[in-house]
Amino acid sequence: MNNKWSDNLRDRMKGFQVDEPEDLWNDLNKQLKEQNRKQKTNWKIFRLAVPAAAAVIAGFVLYWTDPNHTDNIENKNITQEQTNNNTTLQNIKTEQELIPSSRSKTKHVKFTALNNINLSDKQTTAAENKSPEKSDDQPQQGNKETAITKDALAEKKEQEKKTIRINPETYRNIEKRLLATEISHKKRNKQWQLALAANQGISNANIHYSGFGDINKGYIKTDAANNNWGESYFNDIVLYNKNTMPKTSVKHLQPITTGLTLQYRINDFWSIESGLTYTLLVSKLQSGGADHYYKSHQSLHLIGIPIRAGFTFWQNKQFNTYAKAGILFEKCVSGNLKTEYFKNKEVVSREKNSLKIDPLLYTLTAAVGIQWNFAGQCGLYAEPGIGYHIPPNTEIQTIYQEKPVNFNLEIGLRFTFNNK
Amino acid sequence: MRAHDHLAHKKLYEHYVRRLTAICQRYVVDQEDVKDVLQESFLHVFTCFSSFSYRGAGSLEAWITRIVINESLKHLREKGRLENMLITKDDLQKDDCCDDAFDQLETFPQDILHQLIQKLPDGYRTVLNLYVFEEKSHKEIGKLLHINERTSSSQLHKAKVLLGRWIKEYKKNHAYE
């Protein structure tokens, strides 16, 4: 088929422009703002819900798989976390892909589909060759038209005035400048980071006294003379130890905490974070003599929400050192006290009671940290720190009351997400 | 961050909007629909700017234009405007002519031509747009619009004949010397 007619038609309509629809820019702007707002809210909810669930599960797994809590749990718990790294273009590229934008996803797919079909080199080079010419053609044609048709005369003049005369040079500059703006934005973007960590206190507390005792009630006054056999296991043990020196030793173990935190970077120096933590407080007691004694094991499960501010005082591409301070709010959600009675070193009875710390627990925390970004958005960090447990108004004794000031070490992984 | 983005967006918008409105009008015609399609297109441009790679002068315009056309076709499809192409009615006289209608178009007013194109029935117009302005082959058009090559070719021919006739009529009624 002879395509001259097609070429003629296309050439004639080259560069043709009409007035934009009214209010297009305003409505477009509104929609943009709406979209940005929605994206942020969705992302936030998603990120808090998933880590929260994961933290609780992780905590319980920890508890059930390791009864002796003085192990090096830090090593076991290192899994995924966020990191803080926004200085290379390469990272920017991968970070883009993490952003959930269902709209852009579908559109992007379509765009590539069209791209594959729309093919020939002819097309692209033709398009490129045309653009510089377009602007040159226009004024010429404009003149011819006004001379010719009376009807369209006024309209033509209107159109001429409104025609944007941009020469190829400026056009290229605009393109380059837009691209540069986009890149610099990504570098200075605010970031969200997700961290998964395990934290263990350094000190435990050991208490010894003679006589019989209870983890929470302390020393128990007993009077062997007035006891009768068979009234209770406790009384029997008291009688057995009538002529010996019974002793009680209590050990409050280091608190172990695991959790997920979400950190928001405000600028190059400051960040704020919050999250969800699970802490296990264990206390053990043995009371009695060498052959006849009882043992108690108390576990308390605490769920906490930390709120901290962080300050970065030095960083480069790989490393990052910072300081953090804040408050950890904890609530005891459950706990139990198991007691085993031994006669002649053999268990004769077991008891289990549930107990709980009712008031909210507050801990002031401060730490310094160092993070090593071993891959793009992932980093490993260590935060040695100190905490002060504000003594709660409760009868239940834990390490928090015995050692209110305690050192701890937190180790974890951080992942960084960029937000447009 | 917001202000910077905003300025870039505005500049981009102002530079291309009138050209894109013309292109969109050729596909979509209805004023309200044109506004909706353009809004969706610009939104896509702004949010997916990162997927664009600069390949020299004209590549940005080509990318943005492709987005507008994509959105326009999507719109037409959704409104069911592209379904009538399967029915080929022969209500046009069998003149093969009309090539001459497109000769010497340099003097024909652009806006009138634009209006005549918009007057074409949806199917004819869409195929004409893709063939003439996007320089797609009938095979490519077939894939895009889910029709076969022969239908595309037939629609194009009918568009050409109809448009050619209108152009001649206009020239006759507005003869000048």
What would the keywords be for this entry?
heterodimer; A: 420 residues; alpha+beta; Porin; 2 domains; eight-stranded antiparallel beta barrel; two-stranded antiparallel ribbon; 10 helices; 37% strand; elongated; B: 177 residues; mainly alpha; Rna Polymerase Sigma Factor, Chain: A; Arc Repressor Mutant, subunit A; 7 helices
Helix and strand topology:
The complex is a heterodimer of chains A (420) and B (177).
Chain A lengths: L3 H9 L11 H42 L7 H5 L11 H10 L3 H16 L3 H28 L4 H10 L5 H20 L3 E11 L3 E6 L1 E3 L3 E3 L12 H8 L6 E6 L3 E10 L4 E19 L4 E23 L3 E25 L2 E9 L6 E15 L2 E13 L8 H4 L2 E14 L2
Antiparallel strand pairs in A: 1-6, 1-13, 2-5, 3-4, 5-7, 6-7, 7-8, 8-9, 9-10, 9-11, 11-12, 12-13
Chain B lengths: L1 H27 L2 H17 L11 H20 L31 H10 L2 H12 L4 H8 L3 H25 L4
Helix pairs in contact in B: 1-2, 1-3, 1-4, 2-3, 5-7, 6-7
Account of the protein in words:
The complex is a heterodimer of chains A (420) and B (177). Chain A has helices at 4-12, 24-65, 73-77, 89-98, 102-117, 121-148, 153-162, 168-187, 233-240, 399-402, and strands at residues 191-201, 205-210, 212-214, 218-220, 247-252, 256-265, 270-288, 293-315, 319-343, 346-354, 361-375, 378-390, 405-418. Chain A has 420 residues and is an alpha+beta fold. Chain A folds into 2 domains: 26-119 and 191-420, Porin (Beta Barrel), CATH 2.40.160.20; 124-188, no CATH class. In chain A, the strands form 2 sheets. In chain A, strands 1-6-7-8-9-11-12-13 form an 8-stranded antiparallel barrel. In chain A, a hairpin with a 4-residue loop joins strand 6 (256-265) and strand 7. The two termini of chain A are 50 Å apart. Residues 69-148, 161-166 and 182-189 of chain A have low confidence and may be disordered. With 177 residues, chain B is an all-alpha fold. Chain B folds into 2 domains: 1-81, RNA polymerase sigma factor, region 2, helix turn helix motif (Rna Polymerase Sigma Factor, Chain: A, Orthogonal Bundle), CATH 1.10.1740.10; 84-177, Arc Repressor Mutant, subunit A, CATH 1.10.10. Chain B is built from 7 helices and no strands. Chain B has helices spanning 2-28, 31-47, 59-78, 110-119, 122-133, 138-145, 149-173. Chain B starts with a helix and ends with a helix. In chain B, 43% of the residues are buried. The model of chain B has no long low-confidence stretch (mean pLDDT 86).
